[in-house]
Write a structure and sequence with these properties.
- This protein is an alpha+beta fold and 214 residues long.
- It is built from seven helices and eleven strands.
- The strands form three sheets. The protein has a five-stranded mixed sheet.
- A hairpin with a 2-residue loop joins strand 6 and strand 7.
- Helix 3 crosses helix 6.
- The longest helix has 22 residues.
Length: 214
Amino acid sequence: MGVLFRRKEVGSCPVIINQTKTTIVVFLERGTFFNKQVLLSGEAMSMTKEEMGGPLPYRVHAVVGDERSLPTKKQSLQNLAAVAAIPTAFCAAVLVTAVSAGTLTGPAMALSPMVSGMVVQGVVIDSAAILAGTLVAARAATVSEMLIKKHPENFIFKSKPQLSGHRIFSIQGGMNDGPIKMCTIKERDYKRLAIENHKSPMRKDTNTSRSLQL
């Protein structure tokens, strides 16, 4: 039902689709950050006129991460350092989970070739080190920081200013698939995607200790 279900509400507002292979956090910027949401692969977020707050230009941000990696209420999300902390926390959690499980699947499999060869505290990081449990939590955090600094474009995206109006943005790439990029697709192509989970922006008062504060 995607576009058709939200058409009367959305009007001339943007829709953002996650066509990457991982979970991403998306939000808009117009002086401050607003209209944030966590999107799994294949999910989309649409906004109403009220949620857009007027016809002024805005930027689209997309970063690799999930709800667990969002800043706490005390930390907030007010600057680029806080934005970079999202994929850093996400990657560290993925690596630690892989160590605990003793297997590389999903995001951990995508990260493995990217971290292979890194040396942290005298330990060479590779798939064997991860599976053997050599990558402890402290090292995982360091590896994540190094990874984001080395390949920021694969984890953090910020668009050029976008004019108001109904546009459908597709977020692609990310992590081992290369830099995150955004392109505009036509509505007929969007309908063919048959998006089943169509989200609205998170509420500012979302009752969670790790909600994205703006």
